[in-house]
Amino acid sequence: MLDTLSTLSQGDSSICIAVLDGPVDQNHPCFQGADLTYLPTLVKAEAQIGGNMSTHGTHVASIIFGQPGSPVEGIAPKCKGIIVPVFADDRLKTSQLDLARGIEQAVNAGAHVINLSGGQLTDYGEADGWLQNAVRLCRENNVLLVAAAGNNSCDCLHVPAALPSVLAVGAMDANGKPLDFSNWGENYKDQGILAPGKDILGAKPGGGTDRLSGTSFATPIVSGVAAVLLSLQREQGETPDPQKIRQVLLQSALPCDADLPEETRRCLAGRLNISGAITLLKGGKMAENFASVGASEVEAAGCGCDGGLTKASEAMANQGQPAPSLVAAAAKPGGAEAVPSNTPNLQNLMQSFPTTVTQQQMISCPGTYP
User: Fold this and answer.
1) pLDDT tens digits, residue range 318-350?
2) For 222-244, how does the pLDDT look when each residue is reduced to its tens digit (9 = 90+)?
3) Does the annotation mark 90 as catalytic?
4) Are 258 and 264 in contact (CB under 8 A)?
5) Which of 54, 165, 182, 216 is catalytic?
6) Helix boundaries (H) for the chain
7) Can you name the residues that pair with 82 across neighbouring β-strands?
8) Class of residue 53 by CB neighbours under 10 A (exposed 0-12, middle 13-18, buried 19+)
9) Does 199 qualify as catalytic in the annotation?
10) Would you call 89 a catalytic residue per the annotation?
């Protein structure tokens, strides 16, 4: 189905997708000819060969921006890309404040879609005030934030995926079955969809490709599809409307096998249904036999990271005062800082999401399943 989508559009250069992740190896052959812009952050932009966050960022970006005819062909190669590094190779952890800052940067830079392959395990889907304000900023500016549901194999919620107006993404196999590690939760039933997340091809820093599994990889697939649908809106003479695309993707999602109650429970709002989404976008009605996209048809991938986000001061969130600019706040000394941690290997990453460090809650990138 992704092949069919690419024949309709490979994206419009006026549609912008921001990737908030680790550094991206823009010298990889798959990015030659891609329109990518780096925004300055507290994270060093240069990708490191073998670096966990660089591996994650490069893979995720290749899902979306890999150029036609390259080792990894992305879903929306003609769209404009903004790379906002928020996870560093040398410390792996970052704060919710720094993530919120990155979201604000992406919104101010004109992003239509923001991809975040990470999340923090929470009790009730609660988030620090800075992050809530950043997500609200997306909604007020009609920017679609797409975030991973996580790989904890539980009925649980992650932020920002569980926050209002965000589109959460879980992972399924080639047959449309929810993968065992993919999270589910009450909020996701209304605002989450499943996308391919098993054995997805992607770029590695320094050259070469790999196939990995996880909700990290499913998330940019949805971001790329959303960007192409926005491009189709533009080609139809309409004003691109990211929140409309969110609703189209949710309304067109296909149910899982009703004969398997466990699958139904883990299915979120349903499975990614590109044909149905295109039909709804063009004002038509869906047929019941529209096929969802299968993982075997995907030609791009990402990898897990175990990067994390620490919550900013709870007192700041409870004061009830309007938040100042996140960009300005994050630049001030004394803000919530990244929590250093030892660098685990990728095989262990999927087992350590999320991780508690120095008694602070962490947001992590969903793990990797080779």
Assistant:
1) 334 444 455 544 444 333 332 222 222 333 333
2) 999 999 999 999 999 999 999 99
3) no
4) yes
5) 216
6) 2-8, 52-65, 96-108, 129-140, 188-191, 215-235, 242-252, 261-265, 274-281, 314-318, 326-331, 346-349
7) 18, 37
8) buried
9) no
10) no
